Amino acid sequence: MSAAAVRVSGLSGGYAPGTDALRDVEFAAGPGQIVGVLGPNGGGKTTLFRALLGELPVRRGDVALPGRPAYVPQTERARLDFPVSALDVALMGAYARTPWYRRVARADREHAAAALGRVGLAEHAGAAFGTLSGGQRQRVLIARALVQDAEVLLLDEPLSGVDGVSAARIEAVFAELRGAGRTLLVATHDVRQAAEWDRVLCLHRRQIEYGAPAAVLGPETLRETYGGELIVLPGGARAVGVGHHAH
Amino acid sequence: MDLAAPYIQRALLEMLLLAVPAGVLGSWIVLRRLAFFAHAVGSASFPGLVLASAWGIAPQLAALATALGFGAAQEGLTRSRRLAPDAATGLLLVAALAIGIVLASDVVEVGAEVDTLLFGSLIGLKPLDVWLTAAVAAGALVLDAALRRTWLATGFEPGSARALGVKPERADRLLLAGTAVVAVVALDAVGALLVAVVLVVPAATVRLLTARLRTLRLGAVGLAAAEGVAAVWLADALDVGAGPALAVIGGSVFALVAVATALRPQAVPA
Q1: DSSP class of residue B163?
Q2: CA-nearest residue of chain A to B160?
Q3: A–B: how many Cβ contacts below 8 A?
């Protein structure tokens, strides 16, 4: 493996004083790798992303990243009544490189339009964000991350509850990004899907395991990650974390 | 309405100038759900105005000090997370009004009429008031130019704001401070109890009609200006306070637009 793009060493931290929401996280991911981040709700997936974004009080350990990562939140966290079009949202990806006294550069406008094209929404650029379907909204948020042009992308359950067309588009974009040497950390509930990626990181308020899917995704690790919430279906394991809230 | 009369000219100019921050910051106040804060920070300046009137100090200074004290108290009350922000706002609002009423009725000798402090007076506007409003209008435009992308990204989805490279905390504090300052300069025209008719009602009305930020802001400035001019005429014709006149006009226009958009098929701006 070439030099790591993301390196997390002995990380522990949390918002509440004296309690770690997540502890003992230690992994490195290289350019062009997709890492599936597995765990139950409340298991620390979003908390890990907060730590990588520099927003979590870190008590021990540290995080090394090549610049600011792009973050794709769960679509229901975005306000649907906000007066923004799909293009407006994609353009937010260019805010960091636009001085306050300038308009967003023409090149960035073209970049944003192209990013919407890459996620299959070129013809919806002018549509109000709130009028799009859940899958389309998720793709707009991914387009925003594409405009940000970060080396590392953090995606919080981008494939949960999206329609088939959206899921196929999103996976095609993942493949493009992997080919372009970007590092993706993808929080997911779908163990079968994560098994197709390069690495998996299993979290349950601490790191359970990290490594290649074939080596990591055994029944013991999954039981430890999900507790009693795992249903094993014929042809592969599928975690059902929805409805389980580990507080 | 006698357009040659200096007090009418000053009143019209004041309303046209107020329309700028009313539309520009008012749009953010509505989008960022700060309407109650905007109302409260204006009303909370009432005890400051009472003391300023009794002691002969500049009402704007007293109102600004009270508004900033209100903001600090609100932050102190909510930081512990034991009290929700709107509960803290409500608590401080009634406390400020009660203190103002007690001061005005028993404790100090108030030079001005209490109802002028509460509901405003365009007749009493001095040139300095108009200059202050002009300065605040210019300041609101600069603040908006500097921070609107941060306000947009943070309001749309706060969790990603820092990943997008914007600094939400500072920008949000400045939005609250800007709201307080606009409320203070609106006080002499519309009174402590009615600043929301300038800061909230025009933007909330245009919000019913558009799903475009640019249209919302320009429309809110235009509507605030039109309602302001109409309010000067109505206040002059009926010899009532400008605040109540503006509230009646703004409320009626809002009601008309709300009914019209509710009756229009697929009239759901996203």
Answers
A1: T
A2: A71
A3: 80
